[in-house]
Specification:
alpha+beta, SH3 type barrels, five-stranded antiparallel β-sheet, 23% helix
């Protein structure tokens, strides 16, 4: 005689109060447990590369100043410009060079920035190049 002989051939109980669990929910009970929640994201963030902001050479800085002077003189025409600038990363040292295009709205001397008609603002200190 075995230990479970008295119950081995009994019919499976089906609750009249509780609905039967779906196979999907049953399987979810046995899914692997992630003990280190966020660990994979932290490794991915550490592996994400950023660029360093390059300092402009004197002649490049002078050329950029001449372009800004031209844009100040022609501000009333709202020229279409393309700005390459450095955007700092909010989570780690470094950042990325980005390029935007738009019509010039204003050069804000108080905030040291260029404002485009679409509302985007780029700080002068982060500008690498301007094309018009």
């Amino acid at each position: 005689m075995n230990e479970y002989d008295d119950i081995i051939n009994m019919p499976h109980h089906v609750s009249s109060r509780h609905p039967q669990m779906s196979i999907m929910n049953r399987a979810a009970q046995f899914a692997p447990f992630a003990a280190l929640t966020g660990h994979a994201a932290a490794i991915e963030e550490t592996a994400r590369l950023t660029d360093e902001q390059h300092e402009l050479a004197d002649e490049d800085s002078e050329a950029l100043n001449q372009k800004l002077a031209y844009l100040r003189e022609n501000l009333h025409e709202h020229p279409l410009i393309t700005i390459t600038y450095f955007e700092e990363d909010g989570r780690k040292i470094g950042g990325a060079y980005k390029t935007i295009e738009g019509q010039l709205q204003n050069i804000d001397d108080y905030n040291m920035s260029i404002v485009l008609k679409n509302g985007e603002t780029v700080f002068l200190k982060s500008i690498f190049d301007i094309q018009y």
